[in-house]
Amino acid sequence: MGRERSGVPAAVRDWAVAIGVAALLVGSGLSAGSSTANSDLLGYALLAGGGLALAAGRRAPLLVLAVTGLSAVGYQAAGFDVLAVSYLVAVYGAVRAGHRTVTVAVSLALLLALHLTALIVRDEPVREAFGRGGGVLEIAWLIAAFAAGEAVRQAERRAEEAERTREETARRRADEERLRIARELHDSLTHQISVIKVQSEVAVHVARRLGEQVPEAMLAIQEAGREASRELRATLEALRDDDTTPPRGLDEVHELVETSRTLGLDTTLTIDGRQHDVPAAVDRTVYRIVQEALTNVARHADATTAAVRISCLPDSLAVRIDDDGKAMSATAPLPGLGLLGMRERVTALGGRLRAEPRDGGGFTVQAELPVDRTS
pLDDT digits over 295-314, tens only? Predict the structure, then answer.
């Protein structure tokens, strides 16, 4: 996390803690003094270094644990009997990062090393070196630091789990809302539009059989009914496109091409390269891009031909749809909801989308989607 809830950058907080601990250790060393000769400079350097090492605790907690432990042994050997505050902070950070077993092992080794150092450097009797009351206090501080780190780790894990649960709940509610809208559209509009479509077609058919001129208004109603029926069907398919419906992808693109041909558009499909297994999200996105692009060509482009090319590359999948419609680069159309939806799908997968008129006329939709073969 780059920032905590307080809004202060994490690096600033880490350095503030490191400098504060280093100052505390150096101050304690100055007040206590060294019990050995000619070792003050080294001891103070180890005191300060152990504290400043905490600045890297967020990035390398185990390394900082080792550095602060060695510095504690070092300034103990230099004659400074100072509580290893920097090591306690490092224990908190390592346990918070989830390294509990390693922290316990290193802490036990450090306690042993500190007592052996007192035995060797201070030339204390064995019973006195291992039985000093300070050892009990050190263990108590270690337990407290360990417990604090574990408590924060558990709290952060619960917060992350709650966040994931909220996201899953939001997605589930969005899916339920989409299905509800789809059902309402189906119940309220499909029947009425079908009636209008059938009645208008019957009226046109009867008028032609009787040799009467079909009114332009009736032809317009007939065409509007067909168009509304197609749009409603496409909307319902998009709303119902969730995990409960069979996914449609690369294998069904040829159906889109055949459908566009029935609408009078001379469409070709070219697939380059060897088709590999691709993630389901990429598979569905390719289908939706081709579907939306061909739908736009049939409705708005006033085109006679369209070309769909899918290139299967080693680490990506490229899709390109070209038409010979009336779009010109000088009069680029405003992006509609279809293009915005395509761009959102492609961007969500880490890909790139280009949709624009060509200089020589016509429109091009080109997308490149990354494919992770290892996933």
Answer: 888 777 778 899 999 998 88
Edge-first strand listing for the sheet containing 352-357: 266-272, 305-312, 316-323, 363-370, 352-357
Per residue in 83-93, pLDDT (tens digit) is 888 899 999 99
At 278, list the tokens.
């691709």
Q: Which residue has the tokens 């080109």?
A: 366
Distance CA 340, CA 325 (A): 20
Residues 235, 295: Cα–Cα separation, whole Å: 12
Strands (E), 164-235: none
Name every residue whose Cβ is closer than 8 Å to that of residue 149 and which is 6 or more positions away in sequence: 91, 92, 93, 94, 95, 96, 103
**What SS3 class is residue 324?**
coil
H or E, element range at 318 = strand 316-323
pLDDT, tens only, 98-151: 898 999 999 888 888 887 877 776 655 555 555 554 456 677 888 888 999 889
- Pairwise CA distance, residues 348 & 242, whole Å: 16
- Crossing angle for the helix pair 85-96 and 100-121, nearest 10 degrees? 160
Q: How far apart are CA 292 and CA 271, in angstroms?
A: 18
Which residue has 């504060």 as its token pair?
Answer: 20
Q: What is the DSSP letter of 204?
A: H
Whether the CB-CB separation of 314 and 275 falls below 8 Å is answered with no
Write the CB contacts of 318 (distance below 8 Å, at least 6 apart in sequence): 310, 311, 366, 367, 368, 369
CB 308 within 8 A of CB 271: no
Which of 298, 251, 286, 294 shows the shortest CA–CA distance to 370? Answer: 286
Helices 133-185 + 100-121 axis angle, to 10: 170
Residue 282's closest CA among 324, 305, 253?
253
Q: Judge whether 96 and 153 are in contact, CB under 8 Å.
A: yes
Question: Are the C-beta atoms of 87 and 69 separated by less than 8 Å?
Answer: yes
Secondary structure letter of residue 246 according to DSSP: P
CA 335 vs CA 231, 268, 332, 340, 343: distances in Å: 18, 25, 9, 7, 10
Residue 41: the pLDDT is 80
| pLDDT at residue 263 tops 60 | yes
Bridge partners of 317, per DSSP, are 312, 369
